[in-house]
Amino acid sequence: MLLTLVVGAGLSAFVNNTPVVVLLLPILIGVSLRTGTAASDSLMPMGLATLVGGMATTIGTSTNLPVVSVAADMGLRRFRMFDFFVPVAIAAATGIVYLWLVAPRLLPKREIQLQDTSPRIFTAQLVIKEGSFADGKTLAELREKSGDAMQVAHIQRRPGTRIMPLADAAVKAGDRLLIKDTLS
């Protein structure tokens, strides 16, 4: 949990906190299903850690941008990217420890609403770049390189053209591989 809080806060310093939460959401829900704990025990502290981390830079949260702009309009010195870092690091050190040790105990006990523990299927698209390892290789070679862990649903050659993921299908630059898999 501590690592999740630190990673969430760290990522939020450079990326808006909403995408960070969306990125960590399926992982934390999967962990809560496997451990039989309420997802809110990890999601609430993680969401708050991303808010704290977002304050560390001028671009980490949308509220810092107007502060920088208003300060510049008032004739004050321009804020640099990491001017907020030191006070936020001090607050984050205390805040993350609090979110790790105390906050989960303060949250109300909830029953696990999601009883379906069947594996969730996640999808991703891998774009093949010119000159990359995959350019010109067959799907069998790519699967072998991934330890036969890659499950390709189809190859999209151009919009509207899909190629069946047969072992001898050659992958070319510009192709998109639609990958489907579970967390396990």
Which helices and strands, and how do they pair?
Layout lengths: L1 H11 L4 H19 L4 H15 L9 H10 L11 H17 L1 H4 L15 E6 L11 H7 L6 E7 L2 E3 L12 E6 L3
Antiparallel strand pairs: 1-4, 2-3, 2-4
Keywords:
184 residues, Alpha-Beta Plaits, 2 domains, 4-stranded antiparallel sheet, 7 helices, 4 strands
Structural features, described:
Helices cover 45% and strands 12% of the residues. It contains 7 helices and 4 strands, in the order H-H-H-H-H-H-E-H-E-E-E. The protein has helices spanning 2-12, 17-35, 40-54, 64-73, 85-101, 103-106, 139-145; strands at 122-127, 152-158, 161-163, 176-181. A 4-stranded antiparallel sheet has the order 1-4-2-3, with no helix packed on it. Helix 1 runs antiparallel to helix 2 (17-35) and helix 1 packs parallel to helix 3. The longest helix is centred in the N-terminal third of the chain and has 19 residues, at 17-35. It is flat and about 60 Å long. The model has no long low-confidence stretch (mean pLDDT 88).
Number of domains: 2
| Distance between the first and last residues' Cα | 19 Å
Number of strands: 4
Bulk shape = flat
The Cα radius of gyration reads 22 Å
Poorly predicted segments? none
What's the helix count?
7
Oligomeric category: single chain
Sequence of strands across the biggest β-sheet: 1-4-2-3
Question: Considering DSSP H and I runs of 4 or more, what fraction of the residues is helical?
Answer: 40-55%
Report the mean per-residue pLDDT as an integer: 88
Determine the structural class based on helices, strands and strand pairing. alpha+beta
Order of helices and strands: HHHHHHEHEEE
Percent range for β-strand residues? 5-15%
Report the biggest beta sheet as strand number plus sense, adding barrel if it closes: 4 strands, antiparallel
